[in-house]
TrEMBL record:
All copies of domain Glycosyl hydrolase-like, residue ranges: 47-360
Taxonomic superkingdom: Bacteria
Keyword Transmembrane: no
Membrane-traversing stretches: none
Signal peptide limits: 1-24
Organism the protein comes from: Streptomyces spiralis
UniProt entry keywords in alphabetical sequence: Signal
InterPro entries: Divisome_Glycosyl_Hydrolase, GH, GHL10, TAT_signal
Protein name, as recorded: Glycosyl hydrolase-like 10 domain-containing protein
PROSITE patterns reported in the protein's UniProt record: TAT
Residue ranges that the Swiss-Prot or TrEMBL entry lists as coiled coil: none
Region (Disordered) residue spans: 24-44
């Protein structure tokens, strides 16, 4: 989802792709001129309508560092109000963007994206407030946590002195100008689960959410230096790639089990990059020509997690237009529907609202109807249980009118999130 935010997340991947990457009483949204009238083959009573709310680099919130607690709180509740106006029902709030916290964590420092200084108390509790204010508006609140990213720079001395990455420098791998925890170390896996589970223990969150970062996106000419960890822990595996995938599988399974121990019924979901493998690599893969494949490049076997039922929901980031040559939305939706068919894992689709109206994204995204067509296409597949939009600032401002058209065509009535 910036450029260095969650979309620097996917923008970083797209650069390696073969492409450039309410309430019930609310009045009905007006039908924009020329908007398509979408069919609704199933009732809207059980449908994910979500938005990501990104905090890394102040992508969506707060608008800048150093604002007063009152101003930060006001901006946050305004975004929740925007979700209600658009008849959404779920907010996925990024509360651990870079091995830090947007709550008073005993394990990790306060996030720098609040005050501008890592470790500085902002004078209030953003996650606690977000849960309370979301629930007051009838919204579900999912805590979005990034497991392994430590910093968007490669200088450990810039981290606050008490940071776990400074106390345990052997846990950290510099790669591509950033710092990451090493997923191959069991002690790292145990620590990040402990740090993340603190949010579940403290707050009645409705879900826990991981994005697309596991092992980092590959960069040409660079290798992720986990030689020592592989020598110590990888002997039982046929290859380093198989060992890396097992490390991520363990994180997913153990996190799911930990959430249910702490707060039974809390959902656990993941929003991976949208291509598991190309069919040219694996006959089970999608009819795509992506330059990044999560199985091979991020060591995330996203298809397996769905088929095995390890996660409650998956939100593949299908940030391409209908007809896009390298990764066609119209081909990826049915592929993911087949993957989810017969599993316990609910399928939602991640939508690139941030691209709508952006002249640099190609002709399709200049058409305000593009996203509405996505939802109409997805309605043909009963496995698709809803959509999540990147991201909150775009939901609120909607400069191209694309979100208004989605609401007019598809969200005329409120809907409950799937259970």
């Amino acid at each position: 989802m910036s450029r260095v935010t969650r979309r620097a997340f996917t923008v970083a991947a797209l650069s390696t792709l073969a492409i450039t990457q309410a309430a019930a009483a609310a009045p009905a949204a007006p039908q924009p001129p020329g908007a398509s009238r979408a069919r609704r083959p199933r009732a809207a009573a059980d449908e994910m309508r979500g938005m990501w709310l990104a905090t890394v680099t102040n992508r969506d919130w707060p608008s800048r560092t150093g604002l007063s607690a009152a101003r930060q709180r006001g901006e946050l509740t305004a975004l929740l109000d925007a979700a209600v106006r658009r008849r959404l029902n779920t907010v996925i709030f990024q509360v651990r963007p870079t091995a830090d916290a947007l709550w008073p964590s005993p394990y990790e420092p306060w996030s720098q994206w609040l005050t501008g200084t890592q470790g500085k108390d902002p004078g209030w509790d953003p996650l606690g407030t977000a849960v309370e204010e979301a629930h007051a508006r009838g919204l579900k609140l999912h805590a979005w946590l990034n497991p392994y990213r430590v910093a968007l720079h490669a200088d450990p001395s810039r981290l606050v002195a008490s940071h776990p990455a400074r106390r345990h420098p052997d846990w950290v791998v510099p790669y591509g100008g950033k710092l990451y925890y090493n997923p191959g170390l069991p002690e790292v896996r145990a620590f990040v689960q402990q740090a993340m589970s603190d949010a579940v223990r403290r707050y009645p969150v409705d879900g826990v959410h991981f994005d697309d970062y596991f092992y980092p996106y590959p960069e040409a000419g660079r290798s992720f230096d986990d030689d020592a960890a592989y020598a110590r822990h990888g002997g039982a595996f046929a290859s380093r790639a198989a060992w890396r995938r097992d490390n991520i599988d363990r994180l997913v399974r153990e996190t799911a089990a930990g959430i249910q121990r702490l707060r039974p019924g809390t959902q656990f979901g993941i929003s991976p990059f949208g291509v598991w493998r190309n069919a040219s690599t694996d006959t089970r893969g999608s009819d795509t020509k992506a330059g990044v494949e999560t199985y091979d490049d991020l060591y995330a076997d996203t298809r397996k997690w769905v088929r095995e039922g390890w996660i409650d929901y998956i939100v593949p980031q299908l940030y391409w237009s209908v007809g896009q040559p390298a990764a066609d939305y119209a081909k990826l939706v049915p592929w993911w529907a087949r993957v989810a068919r017969g599993s316990r894992t609910k399928l939602y689709v991640g939508e690139a609202l941030y691209k709508a109206g952006d002249a640099t994204q190609g002709a399709a995204w200049r058409d305000p109807d593009e996203l509405s067509r996505h939802l109409a296409l997805a309605e043909k597949y009963p496995e698709v249980r809803g959509h999540v939009f990147f991201a909150a600032k775009d939901v609120a401002a909607d400069p191209s009118g694309a979100m208004a058209r989605v609401v007019a065509d598809h969200y005329r009535q409120p809907a409950n999130a799937p259970r």
